[in-house]
Specification:
The protein has helices at about 30-40, 40-55, 95-110, 130-145, 165-175, and strands at about 1-5, 15-20, 65-70, 75-80, 115, 160-165. With about 180 residues, the chain is α/β, with parallel strands linked by helices. A hairpin with a 7-residue loop joins strand 3 and strand 4. The longest helix is centred in the middle third of the chain and has 18 residues, at about 95-110.
Length: about 180
């Protein structure tokens, strides 16, 4: 698996799936979530509302992931995951790691060979971007080791971290350089 980090706009990524740092309601919010919903258009919100009416009446639990179509985005799918909120006492690194591994599980189930992630839980959820970078890169590497193969076998071949700032990019590049 190729794992890379770039600075950019997640909503413009031409990958099979982008990951949304969603809130549990799945009905939009601020930051990455708001940007994805705005760029995807009404089809994304309609799918999220359908999920809430059917399989997720109580919302998406923290650390879990679920997919929808991508509406007007260039990606085929949006994989929604709810990161832990440090301000609410959710400080378990394993819970944050599960956002990345469960998102990759969903991507593999969809047959997605390329996935773009934001820095889930950095920002408004209060996690330091350096911690998010270390946990995210470690989780993705661990997942890749447990799922060897190639894209023809339904295994994700590319993970791209798409970061919003130079500081976040530096943190993720540092985590990628460490072994």
């Amino acid at each position: 698996m190729l794992i890379e980090a770039i600075r950019g706009d997640l909503t413009l990524e031409r990958v099979d799936a982008i990951v949304n740092a969603a809130n549990s309601s799945l009905l939009g919010g601020g930051g990455v979530d708001g940007a994805i919903h705005a760029a995807a258009g009404p089809a994304l919100l309609a799918e999220c509302r359908r999920l809430r009416r059917t399989t997720l009446p109580d919302g998406l639990p923290t650390g879990e992931a679920v997919a929808t179509g991508a509406g007007d985005l260039p990606a085929r799918w949006v994989i929604h995951t709810v990161g832990p909120d440090r301000h609410r006492g959710q400080t378990d690194p394993g819970l944050l790691a599960s956002c990345f591994t469960h998102s990759l599980d969903v991507a593999a189930t969809l047959g997605a060979s390329s996935v773009a992630f934001p820095a889930v839980s950095a920002g408004v959820y209060g996690w330091a971007v350096d911690d998010v970078a270390q946990i995210a890169v470690g989780a993705v590497r661990s997942w890749a080791e447990q799922h060897p193969g190639d894209a023809d076998e339904g295994v994700v071949a590319l993970v791209r971290f798409v970061l919003f700032s130079e500081a976040a990019l530096a943190a993720f590049r540092g985590a990628l350089a460490a072994r």
